[in-house]
Amino acid sequence: MAEIDDFHWNLSRTFVGLSNSFAIIGILCNFLIVLTTIRTRTMRVTCNVLIAVCATSDIFHQCGTLLVQLPILFGIHVEIESIYCILLMFIPEMGITIGFVCILLIGLDRMVSVIFSIRYRAINKRNYYTVS
Fold first, then answer.
1. Domain ranges of the chain
2. What is the rounded distance in angstroms from the CA atom of residue 113 to the CA atom of residue 47?
3. What is the average per-residue pLDDT within 99-119?
4. Separation between Cα atoms, residue 106 and residue 40, nearest integer Å
5. Is 101 helix (H, G, I), strand (E, B) or coil?
6. Which letter, b or e, does each residue of 49-65 get, where b requires 16 or more Cβ atoms within 10 Å of its Cβ?
7. Given Cys at both, which of 36, 62, 67, 115 links 23, Cβ 3.0 to 4.6 Å?
C-alpha cells in the first residue's frame, strides 16, 4: 500500500469526520421522524407512515457509512475478507434498496391522492398499506 504524507492523511480524515458527522445528524433526525410519526396520532396518515419507513431505511444506510468510515477516522487499518465485507454491508444496502422503493411509493401515493382526491379519503388504509 502506498504511503500518504501527513497533510493528505489529515485532509482525508477531516472529510471522513465531516461525513461521519452528517451521518450521525442524519441518524438522529431520521429517528425523530420515526418517533414523531409513532407518537403523534394525527401523523399516522399513509404518506407520513411511508416517510417514516423511508426514514428507518435511511438509518440503516447511514449506519453503514459509520461502519466503513469510523476506523479510517481513528487511524485503524482493517483488512477483512470479501465475505465479511458483504455481510457487514448487507443491512445498509437493504436500507438503500428499501429507501428507493419507499420514495417510489410516496410518489405514487401523492399521485393517487391528487388524481383520485375524493376517493382517496375513503380508501381502506389497511388494504392500502398492504398493496403498497
1. 6-131
2. 10
3. 88
4. 20
5. helix
6. bbbbbbbbbbbbbbebb
7. 62
